[in-house]
Amino acid sequence: MTLSDWIHVVLLALIQGLTEFLPISSSAHLILPSRLLGWPDQGLAFDVGVHVGTLVAVVIYFRTEVSRMFLASLAVIGGRQSEDGRLGWLVILATLPALVFGGLCSTLVEHYGRSILVIAATTLIFGVLLGWADIKGTRVRRNESLGVRDALTIGLAQALALIPGTSRSGITITASLMLGFDRQSAARFSFLLSIPVIVAAGSLKSLELVRSGSDTQWVMVGIGAILAAVSALACIYLFLKWLDRVGMIPFVLYRLLLGFALLGVWFVS
Prior knowledge:
Blueprint: H1 3-19, H2 26-37, H3 44-61, H4 63-77, H5 83-112, H6 116-136, H7 148-159, H8 168-178, H9 183-212, H10 218-246, H11 249-268
């Protein structure tokens, strides 16, 4: 690998880690370097590696909650009800729409959803929607009041994140704020929702990798995974720490600037 390849690996891993959990769309930021700068695709194994890194980060940060929810969810099957078990099953319920729509629409999105114009439009539209939800939301509910209808609503919103530029965390936080949840509850449920989604996406990509039988630069993949994990863990910690202080407006402004810049690039290209 050349020095240029290593620079691309480091920057793409950091982009994945820093944008996966911020409401600014990691998929858009990973597509744009190749679209705007002509960077080569680092390959399926690298994609799997950085997703594993972000998965490790969110599981480490929420290790206590995840452990309680997992055990309590199993106990629910045996008839023992608990708040952690209820939340665990609501996470699973909210994940189903993304899995269904992902299976039905992934090819369509791959062919028509990765253009600069689409990314610019979704970045702007869902950025404005995020700002509106943050300003207008009552922010009086906590996850203890989360119900089946809430979980399905947030899950249906998450399915829209198949379109690059939408942002999985952004659209799920937007939906939660619209339902009256406070910022911390909205963000935490969004992050917990990321775990089964990343597991599902990573599993599919891993199967593709096995079937392709292609040679893999495992050192590159390992370094990418580590960088993605460290940067994602730092991002989750700082985002939740500063969320109530700064709100969503800085991310909305960033999305507006990025969206209009992309429209400018599309217009002159």
